[in-house]
Design a protein that fits this description.
The protein has 310 residues and is an alpha/beta fold. It is 43% helix and 25% strand. The protein folds into three domains: 3-87, Orthogonal Bundle (Arc Repressor Mutant, subunit A); 90-158 and 275-302, 3-Layer(aba) Sandwich (D-Maltodextrin-Binding Protein, domain 2); 166-259, Periplasmic binding protein-like II (D-Maltodextrin-Binding Protein, domain 2). The chain contains ten helices and 14 strands. The longest helix is centred in the N-terminal third of the chain and has 30 residues, at 60-89.
Length: 310
């Protein structure tokens, strides 16, 4: 039996001088209240209450025990109040990890806004590329990880907070030299720039068209696990690239890169907030995840209102 609950029950009975009234206040039956007090007296080996058919009165030992119980319960309630207040104020530090390109070009902007809105929280953004495993969080002291590809590890919890659209593109100089592809099948014989570690098979690009799905094996002169490096290679006319829209939006707008095969839909990748099941989601971390989800919802290019259908 929970000792604190037994103490609380005894205090209610002593103050109400009634098992029935105490049971009403606690939402318990009179019999259960009586059993709890009896078990407490048995453990302490002392009578705390005198019972009669008409009333309940407290013994001398019970009165001394009551005073101590009330002090203990008051201290516990005060401590819980401090913890609750700290959680409500959301103070402390958060350490999160994100891919280099996405973290630099996108996530940093969101976290700067979060830091302005919540000055009591110190946010640390670590950039790099590794596959999240539960011990990665412990080893690197991470509270949350941001990933833009699916998670298959059942020991991790992933919440979708946005989406990333991809763009097939190439430079005007490349297209002048090699011609504009008219269907995905042509990519099998064109130099393409693969994004490493993005999917189980980095060299297969998938397209959805009016006749169904096509999976194309690609190859080329330059691969990287950085979207920024692949963007540079595309701008240098090394080949055709499949890049996140956020990475090349300005290049498409000013004509430095050209969108290819616009009638075909490309896979939309989820933006995931990831943590191990074993790590408790603190108030400040939950606040950050909710903030990021709202931040991405406000932006069309990350799955927000007005995003193109796929």
């Amino acid at each position: 039996m929970d000792q604190l609950e037994t103490m609380r029950t005894f205090v209610r009975v002593a103050r109400a001088t009634s098992f029935t009234a105490a049971g009403r206040q606690l939402g318990l039956s009179r019999a259960l209240v009586s059993r709890r007090v009896a078990a407490l007296e048995s453990r302490l080996k002392v009578r705390l209450l005198n019972r009669s058919t008409r009333c309940v009165s407290i013994t001398e030992e019970g009165s001394a025990y009551l005073a101590r119980c009330e002090r203990v319960l008051e201290e516990i309630e005060a401590l819980e109040g401090l913890i609750t207040a700290d959680r409500a104020l959301a103070k402390g530090a958060i350490r999160l990890h994100a891919p280099k390109s996405f973290g630099t070009l996108v996530l940093a902007d969101a976290l700067i806004e979060f830091a302005k809105a919540h000055p009591g929280i110190r946010t640390s953004l670590m950039l790099g590329d590794f596959t999240f495993r539960p011990y990665d969080f412990v080893e690197h002291g991470l509270d949350i990880g941001i990933r833009i590809s699916p998670i298959r590890d059942s020991s991790l919890i992933a919440r979708k907070i946005g989406a990333v659209e991809s763009v097939l593109c190439a430079s005007p100089a490349y297209l002048k030299r090699h011609g504009v592809p008219e269907n995905p099948a042509e990519l099998a014989t064109r130099p393409c720039l693969a994004h490493l570690n993005l999917a189980p098979n980095d060299r297969v690009w998938t397209f959805q068209g009016s006749n169904g799905t096509m999976a194309i094996d690609i190859g080329g002169p330059f691969y990287s696990n950085s979207a920024l490096a692949l963007r540079k290679a595309a701008l240098a006319s090394l080949g055709i690239a499949l890049l996140p829209e956020y990475c090349v939006r300005h290049d498409l707008a000013d004509g430095a890169l050209v969108r290819l095969l616009p009638l075909f839909n490309l896979p939309v990748r989820p933006i995931l907030a990831v943590r191990p099941r074993s790590i408790y989601l603190t108030r400040k971390t939950q606040l950050l995840v909710e903030f990021l989800a709202a931040w991405f919802r406000q932006r069309r290019e990350f799955g927000g209102a007005g995003r193109r259908g796929t």
